[in-house]
């Protein structure tokens, strides 16, 4: 049974389609990253899963129950960290957890919960307003874990955290995943979910544009590199040589520059050696690999970020005959 399963789930606000025919399956026990830029529809989707918002069309199940008709069966079995979660500054940490225990009608011992998320005993009786961001994060996680949920839904939990806080959050998520909890983790930053997610779904303008493992995403861009060669003579006459190489998908010649698009990493070195064998004098080699962040940016139409996040160009070794290209 999937932890979350949506079928053509749609939410319209007047003329705006916030979520557009979403078909999404989150498997039991996985950590699923729900990615998309601000305004993509992540919170609206989560709100429909939690029955805070009603869909315009389509349906969703959470832990096998209909998200609308059986919401009361779902809520005791899930933990939520809502977007923009904040603490009550005057209440101490333990009281926060007691409050969650009462609200959920659970019977957890607050200290056990706070042990589980690593909030040190000395801090538990202090006003949460004095907590560091990392401690607030642990407290939020502790409150969400009351009742030992099967599914944890986190809406942009990494917003506003510094790199240390993000690492702490990732450790908490990993620890929960190891206990078998399914985690649904939304973020607009791929890097924040990359280290912990088994799979990611990328949402853009309300539509799911990719669902894959991180490795799968990497594979899909794995060989997508450009090798730019500065030649001593005209590039045009050497273009057919480059085009004939396995793994080279496109070649553009301009003046003394040859740009080769390559899908097989091994072809980067072959391009150099074959061109040298064909009599070329290569003055410079530049390799540009596509980064995972830039793939994410291109999926979500953020061209500026795609450029900014592309892996830096690397200069290869000096162009001597038969030289190997360093990546
Ligand atoms: N109650 C509402 N009334 C009208 N439009 C809404 C409402 N809630 C959300 N929207 C719109 O729906 C779209 C999706 O918003 P949503 O908050 O789901 O995106 P998001 O991916 O969670 O982004 P963010 O991270 O910024 O919250 C946006 O264009 C937003 O302005």
UniProtKB/TrEMBL annotation:
<dbReference type="GO" id="GO:0016887">
    <property type="term" value="F:ATP hydrolysis activity"/>
</dbReference>
<protein>
    <submittedName>
        <fullName>ABC transporter related protein</fullName>
    </submittedName>
</protein>
<feature type="compositionally biased region" description="Low complexity">
    <location>
        <begin position="304"/>
        <end position="319"/>
    </location>
</feature>
<dbReference type="Pfam" id="PF00005">
    <property type="entry name" value="ABC_tran"/>
</dbReference>
<dbReference type="GO" id="GO:0005524">
    <property type="term" value="F:ATP binding"/>
</dbReference>
<keyword id="KW-0067">ATP-binding</keyword>
<feature type="domain" description="ABC transporter">
    <location>
        <begin position="4"/>
        <end position="230"/>
    </location>
</feature>
<keyword id="KW-0813">Transport</keyword>
<dbReference type="InterPro" id="IPR003439">
    <property type="entry name" value="ABC_transporter-like_ATP-bd"/>
</dbReference>
<dbReference type="InterPro" id="IPR003593">
    <property type="entry name" value="AAA+_ATPase"/>
</dbReference>
<dbReference type="InterPro" id="IPR027417">
    <property type="entry name" value="P-loop_NTPase"/>
</dbReference>
<feature type="region of interest" description="Disordered">
    <location>
        <begin position="304"/>
        <end position="327"/>
    </location>
</feature>
<comment type="similarity">
    <text>Belongs to the ABC transporter superfamily.</text>
</comment>
<keyword id="KW-0547">Nucleotide-binding</keyword>
């Amino acid at each position: 049974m999937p932890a979350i399963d949506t079928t053509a789930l749609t939410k319209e606000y007047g003329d705006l389609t916030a979520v557009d025919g979403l078909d999404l399956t989150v498997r039991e026990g996985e950590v699923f990253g729900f990615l998309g830029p601000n305004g993509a529809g992540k919170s609206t989707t989560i709100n429909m899963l939690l029955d805070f918002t009603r869909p315009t069309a389509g349906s969703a199940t959470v832990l096998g129950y209909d998200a609308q008709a059986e919401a009361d069966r779902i809520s005791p079995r899930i933990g939520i960290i809502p977007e923009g979660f904040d603490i009550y500054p005057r209440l101490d940490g333990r009281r926060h957890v007691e409050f969650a225990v009462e609200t959920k009608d659970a019977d957890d011992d607050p200290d056990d919960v706070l042990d589980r998320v690593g909030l040190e005993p000395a801090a538990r009786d202090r006003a949460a307003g004095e907590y560091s961001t990392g401690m607030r994060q642990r407290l939020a996680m502790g409150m969400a874990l009351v009742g030992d949920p099967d599914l944890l839904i986190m809406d942009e939990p990494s917003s506003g955290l510094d790199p240390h806080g993000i690492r702490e959050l990732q450790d908490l998520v990993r620890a929960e995943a190891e206990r078998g909890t399914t985690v649904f983790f939304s973020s607009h930053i791929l890097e924040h979910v990359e280290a912990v997610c088994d799979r990611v779904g990328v949402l853009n303008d309300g539509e799911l544009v990719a669902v894959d493992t991180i490795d799968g995403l990497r594979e899909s861009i794995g060989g997508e590199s450009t090798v730019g060669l500065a030649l001593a003579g005209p590039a045009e006459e050497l273009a057919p040589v480059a085009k004939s190489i396995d793994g080279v998908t496109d070649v553009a010649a301009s003046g003394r520059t040859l740009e080769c698009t390559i899908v097989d990493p091994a072809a980067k070195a072959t391009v150099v050696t074959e061109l040298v064998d064909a009599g070329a004098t290569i003055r410079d080699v530049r390799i540009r690999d596509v980064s995972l962040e830039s793939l994410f940016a291109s999926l979500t139409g953020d061209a500026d970020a795609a450029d900014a996040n592309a892996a830096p160009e690397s200069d290869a070794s000096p162009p001597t005959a038969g030289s190997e290209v360093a990546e």
